[in-house]
Amino acid sequence: MSHYKPYPAYKDSGVEWIGEVPEYWSVVRIKRAAQIATDRCNIIPAGLPYIGLEDVESGSGQYKPTATASRQSDDSTVGLFQEGDVLYGKLRPYLRKCIAGRVDGACSTEFLILKPSLVSTNWLQNWLLTPDVTQQIEAGCDGAKMPRTDWEHVGSIHIPTPNKTEQDFILAALDRETARIDTLITRKIRFIELLKEKRSALITHAVTKGLDPTVKMKDSGVEWIGEVPEHWQHSKVAWDMKMTIGWTPPTGNRSYYGGPHNWVSIADLSAGRVCNTKQTITDKAVAEMRGTRAPAGSLLFSYKLSLGEVALLEQPAYTNEAIAAFHPCKRVHMPFWKYAAPVILPRYSRENIYGSALLNQELMNSARMYLPEVVEQEAIAAAIDRETTRIDALIAKTQHSIDLLKERRAAFITAAVTGQIDLRGEIA
Fold first, then answer.
1. Residues 6+ apart with CB under 8 A from 180
2. Measured distance CA(231)–CA(210) in Å, rounded
3. How far is the C-alpha of 416 from the C-alpha of 412, rounded, in Å?
4. Going by C-beta distance under 8 Å and a sequence separation of 6 or more, which residues neighbour residue 119?
5. pLDDT tens digits, residue range 350-369?
6. Domains of the chain, each with CATH number or no CATH
7. pLDDT digit string, tens, across residues 55-74
8. N- or C-end of the chain: fewer Cβ atoms within 10 A?
9. Which element (helix H / strand E) includes 82?
């Protein structure tokens, strides 16, 4: 932003965290620049869209509707907003969920519906999305785990206000620059999606076809697998591996937790390897536990929640009931199974009444697969390690550039709506 010039003269805003503003700007409380709307209903008028907190992208204020309905139920109470209103998410303000109403609609009651008067819709939205304002709102929230703000507090926050003509000039320049940044972000996000697709395809091919493109193939008899190398042998999970399922001690009983035994939950799987767990259990819990301890070297597989999450176990541990532990064996190289299990096992899932994939011990044990000799499994796992490490590094690098672009976007908006830069002459 170094090529943008400041305003000719500034004055103290009178608000410590805002600092100086252009000398002719006003600084007022939001409750003077906007009013709160409280219209509610249970039946959404025909044709009106619904916006839930989940439909608003954090930080950008963009409308990104979820794939499933975000309304709690068909008769839940909703707020009614009009075109030009600003919806501010009062639950967990640090998520920075604030969207401008482009048409009349209905919304979650977790939004404050603000009707701008002294400032334009986009000016108020951009101001509420700035990190400094978010910090001020957070400071006055009630609740530690689920902080929530209210209109009294939001309305007390100050907002710098040039005249509306100047607001329009600044917002037009903002729109042009943020659109350019958003385009770059979108391209990079798509690039990451393509890299993830490539990663997934690479793993699937390697664990079902091997590494040698010249090897003689045979029909597997399994439709989704297709052909496999001729020398690979047909098997089922239960034929080659011992699998155990864990158990969760009653969470309200403190005598079960904080002991000397590692206890794995889904949260422990994210790193791909598990050594020390976030929670431990006591001798009493172990004595009453129905599961057995998984030995070091086991492959842990999440088969209920976050289906397909895997991790190699580096220390003996117990697991919760949503994790299957495949014990080390002579026939299967566990680092190979770490890649193969998420490809093979979900194929044998069934849908529950809610349409979600469901696996159980019986379905997993009966899953069909084709395995090469262990030495080839080792080679395949090593090859996948090399390729996925390269892809993951590229994904991380691209994600870092996205994060920097988002920081630049936020900083540019903050500089514009506080008058740190003069955008009045930036419209061609």
1. none
2. 11
3. 6
4. 33, 34, 127, 159, 161, 164, 167
5. 877 666 778 999 999 999 99
6. 26-160 (3.90.220.20), 233-371 (3.90.220.20)
7. 999 998 999 988 766 666 66
8. C
9. none
Report d(CA 18, CA 159) in Å as an integer. Answer: 9
Instruction: Return the structure tokens found at 425.
Output: 């002459």
- The 8-class DSSP code of residue 142 comes to B
The 10 Å Cβ neighbour count of residue 251 is 9
Length of the chain (residues): 428
Q: Where are the alpha helices (DSSP H) in 241-316?
A: 283-288
For 203, list phi and psi in degrees, rounded to 5: -65, -45
**CB-based contacts of 249-255 (< 8 A; 24+ apart in sequence):** 249/281, 249/285, 249/288, 249/289, 255/282, 255/284, 255/285
A 10 A CB-CB count for 13 gives 19
Tokens of 217: 């193939």
Token pair, residue 26, equals 């006003």
| pTM of the shown model | 0.83
